[in-house]
Amino acid sequence: MKKLFFSAFALVAIAIATSTTVFAQNEKGTKMVGGAAMYPSKDIVDNAVNSKDHTTLVAAVKAAGLVETLKSNGPFTVFAPTNSAFDKLPAGTVDMLVKPENKAALTKILTYHVVAGKMDSKAIAAAIKAGKGKAELTTVQGGKLWAWMDGKKLVLKDEKGGMSTVTIADVYQKNGVIHVVDTVLMPK
């Protein structure tokens, strides 16, 4: 009897896991980021907290007090650095930035990764075409980013001359779109 119960339990667990996966695959526009489904029906924060590749970004957003902003209607375009992007910063930088006394500096960096509006890859490509090969984007922080195509890769340049590449584009959210980037962008 116990064996039958555990077999039935295992079958139910498999059915639930399968139906969740099928739901993720069936919701149009769902992409996998950091091992988690990013649902277009959820907001930026509700999706990002599930990505194992964005734990540093999520912690930074919380430390900066930007959770409610990124849960609002937006729309926003977020260039979301991965944990490995933050790891490229000099040792101790992230720990220093998330301290309460550095909230303004952290907020400046994070809002530099956000552009008002929903700019998916088609919109960015159109801006690049209109800019004759390069687009200038104004961030929520007030700074500028420059975008262009390098072959099939979308590349961003920050105000300090740093370069970042979009590794996963067009992760649609209820309140915007995320583009995963491999390097933290830095304002002046």
From TrEMBL:
PROSITE patterns: FAS1. SUPFAM superfamilies: FAS1 domain. Residues 41-185 form the FAS1 domain. Pfam families: Fasciclin (PF02469). SMART domains: FAS1. Residues 1-24 form the signal peptide. Transmembrane segments: none annotated. Keywords: Signal. It comes from the Bacteria. One of its GO terms (cellular component) is extracellular space. This is Fasciclin. It comes from Pedobacter kyungheensis.
